[in-house]
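Appendix B: complex inputs.
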Amino acid sequence: MNYVADVRALARKDLLLELRARDTLPAMLLFVVATFVVFHFSLPAHSSQLAASGLLWVAIVFTALLGLGRAFVPEREQHVLDGLVLAPCDRSAIWLAKGIATFAFLGAAEVVALPVFALFFHGIGIATVAAVVLADVGICAVGTFLGAMAVATRARDLLLPLLFLPLAIPIVVGGVGASVVSSPGRYIWFLALYDVVFGVLCWATFEYVVTE
Amino acid sequence: MIRARKLGKRFGDKRVLRGLDFDLAPGGFAVVTGPNGCGKTTLLRICAGLAVPSEGTIDVDAPRAAIGYLAHDPLVYRELTALENLDLYGRLYRVPERRERIGMLLERFGLWDARHQRVASYSRGMTQRLALCRVLLHGPELLVLDEPYSALDAAGAELLDAQLDELHGDKTLLVSTHDPGRVAPFATAQIALA
Amino acid sequence: MGRSYRIPLPALAAASLALVTLALVLVFYVAPNDASQGFSQRIFYFHVSIALTAYACFGAGAWKALRHLWKRDPRADLESYVAVHQGVIFGSLVLLTGSIWAKISWGHWWLWSEDELVLFLVLFLFYAAYFMLRFSVDPGPQRANFSAVYALFGVVLIPVSFLAIRIAKSFVHPQVFTLHGPNFGGWMLVTYCVAQIAMLVFAHTLYRVELVGKRIDARLRELRLG
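Resulting structure:
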């Protein structure tokens, strides 16, 4: 199928760009570990385990923001995005490919971050891992979408967190719920719902973000 | 192939194009001239499909896959090699016999030896030649070229002359330039923006 | 200059004035006192009607956004922006009235236990970012597209956020305080309905006024360009 081939070609390009530049992923890793250390000092002596779980999700969202801010920078430099938009492929493929690549980096960062979290604070259950995966889908879908808009504005890096955080609140609720509550099923479902609803919305409207 | 009627374009409070009428028949070669800032790039962007007019109408009788646009920027990724860039565009434009065609173009524009180097290491002239490869890769019916000679050295300019000679009459061209004399042998029409 | 609406603006403004006055009279003089909360609960009539009006404004903004994206309606971008603007104004009033009600009823200026208040806080943040987005892009088709798409995200966020706030209750710090609206019956229902209609008409009037102003600005700019 042509669409899949387009997404694959574009995603390969995005992964290749990051592997060459080698700056975003190490920065995310360092940032997330540093954030954990800050959390240790932010939690007063008798804070519950649950407080740390909550903070895990804060760390995930802000680490993701770090990576998302960079997502469309190669395209905006010298307007390469115009070249992609001119191509006959469906414009939503640009978003999907970029989202997949960002998901890969965020996932790679978390593969390190989650064990570090377990080391510093407390163990992580399977529900949390499932929630992290689903949350990543939502974060990457919405974040890449907003990143494409933010990078076209004057405010750029200032704007992305402002646009993203209100939309990230439901993700945080789903994630923390799944990590903390004894029957996390509801929260996992909620994260899946978020992913589907916003995924479809992003897919349907990305065309308008990159064209006039 | 292109028909514009009362074409106008505004950017906020600045009016860049106004009341423009022109026709470009298939196989025609139109040269766009005018001083800096008069809207040449804007006009070409509209014809390529990257911008919509604020007023008036424009009909471009070519699908996206049949349009090739050369912008001020080369529209290539600096951190990828020439080959990787062209391979990406080749896939997106579904170019048949992609590898062969890329090889042929790189060779024609003298970039074959540099094909595995990142574009960031290229000179400006080389980058412009790569951009030309990108534009020609999918064999477009309509070529929209924004000051194609601007970054080229003498050798590169000669390559472009040869290319335009080959294309004119067969494909439709819309070219903006500060040096209309150079393309005068091919031109069938002129659009002068005041 | 603009196409003629069915209801002329002065008539709309007069209707607003009349309805709001009527609502005030009903709320403060006619509606019976709520047994448990007394006089303070009267703010509830405005709080809820303003909240629903805000939702209506955001919904209208999203609808106009859709018309811009889908039908390329040239008027829709401005209409969407003004609708969202009204939504934010009324949304701020929701936070204000809710806060006052909470203070009077429980002595706290903010209650995390009130789902609607929290929802409006999230929406306020979201739509404030809408303005930051809009003012960070030069006027033109791109700005209109960005605004429209973001307005659509907003309207989808409303139910998703509401659900999130609901399910968050299991683990978020529980608060015992909640605000209860009065049990409806008789005059209370009438008062509420009048207040609601008054707020909707008032919002529509403000919307039309702002739209006229913005259209005049745009036309002036066009004329100046020559």
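Chain A has a mean pLDDT of 93.
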